Amino acid sequence: MRPSSPTDSALEVRSLAKRFGAGRGVEDVTLTVPAGSITAFIGANGAGKSTTFRCVLGLMRPDAGKVRLFGRPADAAARRRVGFLPEERGLAPNDRVRDAIVFHARLKGLARRDAARRAESLLARMGLGGRGSERIEALSKGNAQRVQLICALAHAPDLLILDEPMSGLDPVTQSDMLALFAEIRAAGGAILFSTHSMAAAEALCDRVVMLSGGRTVFEGPLAAAAERAAHGAVVVTTDPRALAEAAEGVGGEVRPMTVADGAGEIGESGARRWRVRLPAHVPHPALLRALSERGVPVLAFTPIRADLEGAFWDLARPSAAPAATVERAA
Amino acid sequence: MTPPVLLIAERELRAYVATASFWVALAIGPAALALALGLAALAARPAPPVVGVTAPTVAAERSAVTALTDAARLEGRAVRAVVGDRSAPSRLVVAESREGEQVSFVGEAPPLSPLGRELVARTVERDALAARLGLPAAPEQRSEPAPAAPDGHAAARFALMMMLWLTLTGSLGMLLQAVVRERANRALEGLLAAARPADVVFGKLVGVGAVSLLVLGAWLGSAVTLATLAPKDAGLAAAALGDLGDPLALARAGLIYILAFAFYGLLTISVGAAARDTAQAQNLSRPMFAVLLAAFFAGMATAGGASAATWLAIAPPFSPFVLLAMPPGALSPLAQLLALVSMGLGAVLCAIWAMRGLELGSRRRPADWVRELLAARPSPAAH
């Protein structure tokens, strides 16, 4: 069963809140996943992605907000049309591959024979044909994850919710999964997946929902997210004061980089990396010109184009200023 | 469509049946019972030969029986004297005559030496003479009291209680593992995305219960079979096994078992749902297992029908053991009914606790419970 038209929503979440104390949980999450689309759910660790998923799936009772699936209240019947891949893979290690898939499919309402047929078909599709009799514990991490995904897909759900589906997978398996997701979208299915891989999100998704501090800070098409991202450059210099003056001269600003981003002294010159953020209308050459005019000693200049990663840096990273309002693009 | 609760139960059952330890548990009970019965049969003394005794008076009968058993004892033998048994192969006949009582042995020779037979005859004559003269019976005439028949009822009740305790301790450990393992490796999350907490709770309960039932069935089945095969003189073990074959007693025990398993099983799932990992689950479950042990000893202590047993019987943790241990007539039907109802209510409370515990991130404080009850509003997600 598919939603009646591609414009229908497979999932609607409005003003969802779930608090655990000590500031954890989600405060105000709003998102829509249209049918026949793939939506990336992006946010830093602890932003509230998994909590949102759990509330949508009925694993947690939200404190406030509304969840609708396929245009109706999120009841047990509607949730039966949802497939879920949890972040921490939790198949019973002693189960045989085929048994695990059939069990999950039957839990979602498939008859035993249909479930077995579907299991064989998906195992073959995911390159695991002939391994149905093996125990889960005998599989590699990547293959176990494929089996987990098959379990989520086994009942042909109309909405697939995937919590970090790419984590820990090799590039080949990632590519296989992306191809499978594209097939599901082409067949009219909807996918909501959380990821820290901006490349995967850009390669696959139609829409983006960004979460920061338990709130939705952006929701809209992928292109609109990239447009909202400030661009800039990573500059290596020994004179940060002059760099800041040059950046401010063209309307930009200098931000320190974290250790994870490559902060720290480079060589013995005392040079450091700095991230320069530029307004959307200021091109990179304008910054280069300003640096040159002020005689800033530039050891390296790496442009940062306006993309999803830039948008994430601006909107969703934990140190970003809390958004007063949600940015929504049509 | 198969209900999720049955699918989860089937999965649990299959998971345990696939292990070697299950088959060991299945076989160990019947093997132990057969061994116990065999040892009891070997240890049992052969039945003493029967000697029928007939005499003209009750006093003469008593004198003959005592003389016969005493003579046999003096010769280091055993004999069973049955008054009035004229069909016994060996008979002792006392007849009145002008000279006094005449003792004769008819049929097969009794298990006595000629001297022993002479002793019996003279003793009977002497007693008859003493009675005629109005003298008291000779003080040296003593007969050992007959050994008490083995109390098969008490032994059967103890066996049922023991089996319940063994079944519970074994299956509760399995249940705890089933919940904690899935909670720790997050398999529970995937399961709860497809099934309600009630399905998970009762699926696990039924699945592990079926495993226990198979083991218990094998044990009881073998007990009933052995009861029919057991020789009648195999002592206490045979008497107990014979009592276990009573269908009514088994049906009553079955009902108690089901309620006991539901109560303790749901309590265990609650404990498992409240724990984050195996270590925490073990710590949390320790008091429960201590109560289980205390309940077993309480059952043993009340087996004689102590008055405090009535109160213990309606305390759910103690109810099953007290009900199984006490003689059926020691508790009034109302008290027994109350005990069963209290176990049922206890199980319902534990079920609610277990289902709440499986809701992720819903560690409610007592204040939250009160607030929820007062507000009594449905989940916002359901709108």
Account of the 3D structure:
The complex is a heterodimer of chains A (330) and B (383). Chain A is an alpha/beta fold and 330 residues long. In chain A, 33% of the residues lie in helices and 29% in strands. In chain A, the strands form 3 sheets. In chain A, strands 6-7-8-3-9-10-16 form a 7-stranded mixed sheet, with helices on both faces. In chain A, strands 11, 12, 13, 14 and 15 form a 5-stranded antiparallel sheet that branches. In chain A, helix 3 packs parallel to helix 5 and helix 9 (240-249) crosses helix 10 (284-293). The radius of gyration of chain A is 23 Å and the shape is elongated. Chain B has 383 residues and is α/β, with parallel strands linked by helices. Chain B has 14 helices and 4 strands. In chain B, strand 3 (90-97) and strand 4 form a beta hairpin. In chain B, helix 5 (152-184) runs parallel beside helix 9, helix 9 runs antiparallel to helix 10 and helix 9 (247-274) packs antiparallel against helix 12. The model of chain B is unreliable at 375-383 (pLDDT under 50). The chains are: A alpha/beta (330), B alpha/beta (383). Chain A binds chain B through residues 18, 20, 51, 54-55, 57-67, 73-76, 79-80, 82, 84, 86-95, 99, 103-104, 106-109, 111-112, 148, 151, and chain B through 1-2, 4, 7-8, 11, 14-15, 18, 181-182, 185-196, 359-362, 379-383.
Features:
heterodimer; A: alpha/beta; 11 helices; 29% strand; elongated; B: four-stranded mixed beta sheet; 4 strands; 68% helix
Number of continuous helical runs of chain A: 11
Query: What is the string of helix and strand elements of chain B?
Result: HHEHEEEHHHHHHHHHHH
Look at the structure and give the mean pLDDT of chain B: 80
Shape of chain A: elongated
What structural class should be given to the helix and strand makeup of chain B?
Answer: alpha/beta
Query: C-alpha Rg of chain B, in Å?
Result: 31 Å
Helix content of chain B: 55-70%
Number of helices of chain B: 14
Strand order across the biggest sheet of chain A?
6-7-8-3-9-10-16
The count of strands of chain A amounts to: 16
